[in-house]
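Late entry, evening session. Most of the bench is empty. Finally got around to the prediction I had been postponing all week. Sequence below, unchanged from the version circulated by S.P.
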Amino acid sequence: MPLTKEHLIAELDSAHRRIAELEKSKKKHLATPEAYHALVDHSLQGLLIVQDGRIVFTNRRFSEMSGYTVEELLNAPPEKLKAGIHPEDRELVWRRTRERLDGKPVPDRYEYRALRKDGKVFWLETFSALIEYRGKPAVQSASIDITANKLSQEALHTERQKIITTIGLVPYGVVLIDRDGTYRHVNPKFIELFGYDMNEIPNGKEWFRKAFPDPEYRNEVIATWVNDFRNAPPGENKPRTFNVTCKNGKERIVNFIAVLLETGEYILTCSDITEVKQVEAALRESEQKLHSIIQGSPTPAFVIGKNHRVMYWNKALEDITGIRADDVVGTTGQWKAFYDTERPCLADILVDEGARDISQWYREKHKKSTLSEDAHEATDFFPKLGKKGKWLHFTASVIRDSRGDLVGAIETLEDITSYKRIEQEIQESEKRYRTIFENTGTATVVYGEDLIIRMANTESEKLSGYSKKEIEGEK
């Protein structure tokens, strides 16, 4: 079994009684001095008896701790004995020794620094008592070397101070929590965020009571915390988001990340994400509105992101193309609705900021739109659509965010097949009329309301001696 500090303290507590008993035993059993010395020299404590300012008794363990031989310790004058105590602790140790000899009440157990023979500092935890030694008052002490423990404590304190300094500079709230739930430190950002300082929330119980005033919600938060760390190994973090009531009564949405340390302590970070959540909610609402507007529009339309993937494909476009939104949203397959082989749509070209490349794909069929600085439009015939193909007039425009950065493009389409057919019918009708007009066999001209000749046929040329160009436009 490893020797713990508690075991040593227990021995310190009884050391003075054992030495006294050994002294009595020595007097009674002078025939067995070897047993007495063996017991004293193998003690776990360094033993001293100080009388008249000098060491009159010591053992091998104290010799090992101090670096002096037993003989050197026993022969040391009072000045050298005092010099063996660290300057900062010297007055304390000797004052307590004098007061103990005077019968005044002084602590039995205390810690101090001593100097080894080589000048190195070591820490002692000492248990002292007033005894009678060879008929005169003396101070008996039993000590253990706690240097390693002190160095560990100092290193821990140094590291903790580094952590405290560091967390004082971070832009989010941080709490250091002892294993018993006591709040050891909160940084300025924590106080700024919640309004509570350590006097108001000295421990987790007070924090939960103030930050989560609703008992039902508080129990839910506590249960989550306990469950997260019931079997969690050190170093594992547990991010959680809760609604916290601040000192001023306002509620904030806070992201907590708690980490269990090797020491059993916790570090808890707190980030206010209220505005982020509000922006996310507004963005979701905005996206829902956009979806509703596009989806409910009677104009066929689709929206692509900067990565060319389809974000929206409305019902009107489903009807005109025969392609369902579920089959194209999230893909880059928008071209399949219009072309036999993969090629960019007008929106794709604008997303790549390649307005100058539009002519390569649409030639004389396109022009810059008057609707928007970033919009272009074109007209083309698409034989894939419908039974006999369709004429579409389509307009594409880039979409920019609040900073002006390009994030995607929208393309709207208008079925102008019926207009094109009427246009063709008018052209054919005019052609037929012109044929009839030219073949009447008589000189014929057509006047406008302003009596200006609009049309003249070949016979009128023959009769007048003027050409059609000379006749048309004259009164």
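Two things to note before I forget:
The CA atoms of residues 140 and 272 lie 60 Å apart.
Residues 26-31 have pLDDT under 50 and may be disordered.
Will write this up properly tomorrow.
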